[in-house]
């Protein structure tokens, strides 16, 4: 097979990498679908740039991505590297050999200085996208305002400043691009799930209403009303 490819360990399936980006996950819309509960629906991307291939963990799964057993966020791959998506594993092949340090991990962009309120806004923005069950759109300005108990106008002002700080240009899906950048930098991570035991509901016995005597036909007998003669 010409060009880079990945061989899935469990199934033996060999998938050639796309010329640009190959998506990996458990969802229906990805290029390489892995039926493993430890894999998130949009888990990682395999990116080709010329003769090079690097992997990007999307930060949407608590199980993460590993290369040769080491957790990574973004890293250049070499021929023969073993990549783990949660518990699922695959081996890269067809990558041209070159004098590239296998321990080299691509540097992330430096995060800008953020205020406490801006961090709160980013956390609320990314919360829907950090679900293990699905990759969904980030929160809207109204949802963030409700979550933080502030006005929607205040949230929009914070978002405008955050777009500038993270250099997110104007255009469609601006909130999504901001959320992806924040998650890729590791500024917001999934919170551990807290299981709260369901309290047993106390059943209060109801007091039965007194039954009126019934006639032979089964209807309730009414008390006759006696009218006084005028």
TrEMBL record:
<dbReference type="Pfam" id="PF00498">
    <property type="entry name" value="FHA"/>
</dbReference>
<dbReference type="InterPro" id="IPR016032">
    <property type="entry name" value="Sig_transdc_resp-reg_C-effctor"/>
</dbReference>
<dbReference type="InterPro" id="IPR008984">
    <property type="entry name" value="SMAD_FHA_dom_sf"/>
</dbReference>
<feature type="region of interest" description="Disordered">
    <location>
        <begin position="194"/>
        <end position="230"/>
    </location>
</feature>
<feature type="domain" description="FHA">
    <location>
        <begin position="22"/>
        <end position="72"/>
    </location>
</feature>
<keyword id="KW-0597">Phosphoprotein</keyword>
<feature type="compositionally biased region" description="Polar residues">
    <location>
        <begin position="196"/>
        <end position="206"/>
    </location>
</feature>
<dbReference type="InterPro" id="IPR000253">
    <property type="entry name" value="FHA_dom"/>
</dbReference>
<protein>
    <recommendedName>
        <fullName>FHA domain-containing protein</fullName>
    </recommendedName>
</protein>
<dbReference type="InterPro" id="IPR036388">
    <property type="entry name" value="WH-like_DNA-bd_sf"/>
</dbReference>
<dbReference type="InterPro" id="IPR050923">
    <property type="entry name" value="Cell_Proc_Reg/RNA_Proc"/>
</dbReference>
């Amino acid at each position: 097979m010409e060009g880079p490819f990945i061989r899935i360990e469990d199934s033996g399936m060999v998938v050639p990498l796309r010329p640009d980006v190959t998506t990996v996950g458990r969802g229906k819309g990805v290029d390489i679908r892995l039926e493993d509960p430890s894999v998130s629906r949009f888990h990682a991307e395999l990116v080709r740039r010329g003769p090079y291939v690097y992997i990007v963990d999307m930060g949407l799964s608590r199980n993460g991505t590993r290369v040769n057993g080491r957790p990574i966020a973004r890293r250049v791959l070499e021929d023969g590297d073993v990549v783990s998506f949660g518990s699922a594993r695959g081996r890269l092949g067809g990558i041209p050999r070159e004098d590239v340090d296998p321990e080299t991990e691509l540097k992330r962009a430096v995060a800008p200085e953020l205020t406490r309120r801006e961090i709160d806004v980013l956390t609320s923005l990314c919360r829907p996208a950090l679900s293990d069950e699905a990759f969904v759109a980030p929160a809207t300005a109204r949802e963030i305002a409700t979550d933080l108990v502030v006005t929607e106008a205040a949230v929009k002002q914070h978002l405008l400043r955050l777009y500038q700080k993270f250099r997110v240009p104007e255009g469609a899906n601006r909130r999504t691009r901001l959320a992806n950048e924040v998650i890729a930098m590791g500024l917001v991570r999934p919170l551990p799930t807290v299981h709260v035991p369901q309290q047993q509901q106390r059943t209060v016995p109801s007091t039965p209403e007194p039954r009126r005597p019934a006639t032979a036909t089964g209807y309730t007998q009414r008390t006759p009303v006696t009218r006084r003669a005028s």
